[in-house]
Batch of 2 targets.
Target 1
Amino acid sequence: MINYQGIIAKYRQHLPVTGKTPIITLNEGNTPLIPAPSLNKLSGMPGMEVFLKFEGANPTGSFKDRGMTLAISKAKEEGAKAVICASTGNTSASAAAYAARAGLKCFVILPKGAIALGKLAQAMLHGAKIIAVDGNFDQALDIVKEISEKYNVTLVNSINPYRIEGQKTGAFEIVDQLGGRCPDFHFIPVGNAGNITAYWKGYREYKRIGRISRLPRMLGWQAALSAPIVKGKPIKNPKTIATAIKIGNPASWQAAECARDESEGMIGLVTDRQILSAYRHLSQIEGVFCEPASAASVAGFIKLAAEGFFKRQPMFSSVTVCILTGHGLKDPDRAIQESSKFQTCQPKLESVLRLMGIQKKPAKRKQLA
Ligand code: AN7
């Protein structure tokens, strides 16, 4: 027997499972909550503690696994033979993996040319049937919704309520990791808006059963040219380098607005430049490699900090959690583009030393202790 067996086993009493539900798990969840000292300082608030919830540490490298373990377990319980999703990449990688484990067929409808390489590689190797449409994510989602209504194939996008149920465990885990404390500020990227909906549900449920006595403020972040909720209208042709959140008409739009309003939070926008700056900051200062869409949460934090948002808070100390939704390895092309070039040389000591910037001969051999 092993100790940790995934989010369904851990949070069973909070989830819609019974003894008859086959648990399809890759031991997802239990992801690290990593302190980010450089962000404490940036906040301008002396008692601020910032943590990064690194969802890239899930088995397929994103937060989607929390929802997928439940969606696929329930699909299996209900006798499904096939599942389908539209995806900007991570949902497809997760669906393909859990479907493989469950012995279900998996159909994936992707916007052509808009999926980061790592995600595509995952869906392909897990054996999903992949169809790339010459359109965007919103169009792909409309198509899969219609197919799942008319044919015998289960939709595993976050419109599927089991996805939200599974993903709400992220909120439980944060509170548990903080020793029963609720964060004051919860920063999160917003795409199709399922995750902000799920976290808000999780926090509210923990409050209802008395595990926490108050709720965090939910601060969601969209990319500037893919910000339908901020602009108050669907975006026909969304654009951003953060392909995971390149979404113009989010499925959970209203629920996200509820989370924002009930928590006295906000949904704001960050430019691609701000997203990439946070992406490099996290990797180069904190040693944490997330994908660009994930860095939108930290970009939002840095933006609010620069505007003096935290200094204006009437609190002595506070805890902030930024959700890093996906692993940096998902989008290796972007990582390389954002880095300085490396050098090559002959396999000779002098050549390597020259490129290292070491010119002098060593004065004497270093003594080994
Ligand atoms: C890394 O995979 O929509 O607001 O189809 O992959 O719950 O949509 C991914 C979304 C944030 C946004 N960060 O979450 C998909 C998909 C990463 C993501 C989001 C996504 P939602």
Target 2
Amino acid sequence: MMKVLFAASEIHPLIKTGGLADVAGALPVSLRQAGQDVRLIMPAYQGILEKLAPVQAKTNLGDPFGIGDIILLETLIPASDTPIWLVQCQSLFERSGSPYLDQYSKDYADNHIRFAVFSWVTALLASQGNLLGWQADILHLNDWQTGLAAAYLKSWKTEHIPIVSTVHNLRYNGSFPMSLYPDVRLSNELLDLHGLEFYGQFSTLKAALVYSDAITTVSPTYANEILTPEYGDGLDGTLRAHQDKLHGILNGVDYNEWSPEIDNNIAQKYDINNLDLKDENKKALLIENDLSPDLSKPIFGVVSRLTEQKGLDLVLEAMPSVLKSGARLILLGSGDPNLEQAFLQLEKDYPEQVGVRIGYDEAYSHKLQAGVDSLLIPSRFEPCGLTQLYALKYGTLPLVRKTGGLADTVFESGDAANGFVFERADTQSLTDTLHRAMDCFNHSQAWRQRQINGMKYDFSWQKTTATWLNLYQSLLD
Ligand code: ADP
Ligand code: GLC
């Protein structure tokens, strides 16, 4: 049995802003089911403790950063009995709302300290098992919020513990002005070109890439893409230098959360043998959006963070062409205020065909997956993407740009066809693909076959458990 300390800054169902939370909520559970002793560590954001079992132990780690006492709490996630440590520090984590952004949607000015402290505690726990009576064999980091843990371990020169770092999104590289470096209490020795230095700043993600024993990312295609300047976000050189330890392992789906046959969020449960029942969800969603429950034309959907990455500006430009042919669009998203406004404007322009909800709503995201015909994901880059995997399970055909994990999971041609795919990130390519989807919708047999292909495919975490265990094991040999 391997002991793995899994560090993440968001974990579903405790707190979530995107796919990282889904992964951190499911992969450790699946590894535990495979007999491994995986435990979690996350910051104690406001309101988190109410979602957990009563705290079993408390350890005061003092005030080494001069920001108030840091306290480590130990408890369990009730649904899965997974042990979790929470890093409590009043001045850093007791804030309402997003884990990263203030009320104006700006990064907190002290994010470098907040996640340095989280990473510091993670490193302490990983290297000094005697502190809490549990010594990890492997430390598994996720994204920039945890990257400095690898730097602390490097600088402390404690006994080596193998580190795996998973990159969920290279665009968020945790880079901060050099003037803030003293705040994270690391030595200047780590600051050279082969260390934390990143175009005159310091990058916490680069620390993870450089000082880990293995780097994983969340799909095979993205693992190749990030070695190129086009997708490497300035870190492609570093990644090429560490290519021999880079692995692309596709994310999975937690089918206990995402299956139309057991989903309590949706109007009507259904499965592959009762696919006509999906219509009830389509009608319910249209009615909820004050649109006519007419199922003769397709309903396109979007569930997404509204950022440049997701390519939704292309949807704004391409959509009118298919709206004129009778399609509908239902969107749930939040993020960039310009995109939010533009989609609200589209709704005003096409009040009988477009329904837009700005915000974050977990239950409604399930209703939307069940209630649309096709989910649009025209991403400029997509490390893995989970919403297309959820769509497939709900008999909702993903319409995607061929990049990253989307390229690995959605196919337009061949026997395994399960959606629609385009290559170039431009309006014309998306418009053409929307029209192809409209045509296919009119050939109900072809559409149904794609739905069935998608629903049959198994993207469960259990499928990659062996790959993860082999990777961990290879670091211990
Ligand atoms: P990313 O992590 O880049 O945002 P993913 O596709 O991996 O993309 O994961 C997104 C996750 O966040 C999915 O679980 C999706 O359903 C969810 N999600 C995104 N936007 C919203 C929203 N506005 N409301 C509810 N859930 C959302
Ligand atoms: C990131 C990526 C997304 C991926 C998710 C989980 O947020 O943008 O593509 O699915 O992490 O790994």
